[in-house]
Amino acid sequence: MERKRVLSGVQPTGVLHLGNWLGAIRNWVELQHQHDTFFCVVDLHAITVPHDPALLAHQTRQTAALYLACGIDPQLATVFVQSHVPAHSELCWLLNCITPLNWLERMIQFKEKANKQGSQTSVGLLDYPVLMAADILLYNADLVPVGEDQKQHLELARNIAQQRLNTRFAPHRETILNVPEPLIFPEGARVMSLTDGRNKMSKSDPNDNSRINLLDAPEVVRKKIKRAKTDAATGLTFDDPERPEASNLLALYALLSGGSRAAAAEECGQMGWGQFKGMLSEVVVDALRPIQQRHGELMGDPAVLDRVLSQGRQRAEPVAKASLERVRTALGLVPRNLELS
Ligand code: TYM
């Protein structure tokens, strides 16, 4: 049976946090065994908001190292840097020309980020979801494992593929590009901020205490959890909508301790915040330890990572080029492999 194609990516903005791991990368690790998987570091997305050029290359390599440290096996999965495969930018342009502007203006993440950037909002920020669609469609991905916050962007990628490309440019022929499905695992799909349980944990939150970064030292993890927002009630529960922090931290405990949600609720149902936070801190520190150790080894030996990224590019490029060529042909562009006479 043909294996399903999977593609996903993370932006190399800052250090990845628990939300990126539990909402996305942890699931990729499972998927790589049964599927044909492509995982890219989306550096072109990271420059859609103001960034520090002195840091971008380091953070791109660090993100790739974290993929591997979290368990992505480059023998099984194709790991590469988005900007190393120029077809991403090229398909993005072609898709730009067939995507209605008002589809992009509706995107929640665009509106939120544009609000912060004001008059400095870049064209790239508006175009972010089209580049993301290009990432996915170039590989004819069947499944795209992401956290809950990416659902709207996935819907856009599906609409571009189906309504703007396949239906308009190949009404009677085979589909030009595959229409992908989002794959959202409910557990970990929405990890919330430590300082406000009603907001998601995010790299762009200016308060570093709002998130646990995968490279935070144990004492930093303990300090952040100690300071995490609590409420006046005793006992941790999932079921009280008025207690989003309790629900979020208990979910983290269940996920990282490897037990079920029911077992975590039973264990912590009567516990005071102090005792619970102590336990949660140790579970988080224990979960991050092997990731940090492996990450340190990888960053200490750049040749290994370079080889992985170079092999990844070599595997990704022909797949991407073939899809790009199909779209070019469908849109009526002159083929570029003309014989010289
Ligand atoms: P990024 O870097 O913002 O997020 C990367 C992944 O982490 C998930 N995530 C979360 N999951 C649970 N709880 C959270 N608090 C949380 N925060 C982030 C995101 O849902 C995502 O899966 N636009 C994408 C990057 C991208 C992409 C792609 C993804 C570019 N091209 C093609 C899939 C396919 C993004 O959100 O990056």
From TrEMBL:
Keywords: Aminoacyl-tRNA synthetase, ATP-binding, Cytoplasm, Ligase, Nucleotide-binding, Protein biosynthesis. It comes from the Bacteria. L-tryptophan binds at D135. GO terms for molecular function: ATP binding; tryptophan-tRNA ligase activity. It is found in: Cytoplasm. GO terms for cellular component: cytoplasm. InterPro entries: aa-tRNA-synth_Ic (IPR002305), Rossmann-like_a/b/a_fold (IPR014729), Trp-tRNA-ligase (IPR002306), Trp-tRNA-ligase_bac-type (IPR024109), Trp-tRNA_synthetase (IPR050203). Its main location: cytoplasm. A motif ('KMSKS' region) lies at residues 200-204. GO terms for biological process: tryptophanyl-tRNA aminoacylation. It catalyses: tRNA(Trp) + L-tryptophan + ATP = L-tryptophyl-tRNA(Trp) + AMP + diphosphate + H(+). Its EC number is 6.1.1.2. Pfam families: tRNA-synt_1b. ATP binds at Q11, P12, T13, G19, N20, G147, E148, D149, V191, K200, M201, S202, K203, S204. A motif ('HIGH' region) lies at residues 12-20. Gene3D superfamilies: HUPs, Tyrosyl-Transfer RNA Synthetase. Catalyzes the attachment of tryptophan to tRNA(Trp). Homodimer. PANTHER family: TRYPTOPHAN--TRNA LIGASE, MITOCHONDRIAL (PTHR43766:SF1). NCBIfam families: trpS. Belongs to the class-I aminoacyl-tRNA synthetase family. This is Tryptophan--tRNA ligase. The lineage of its organism: Bacteria, Bacillati, Cyanobacteriota, Cyanophyceae, Synechococcales. The gene is trpS.
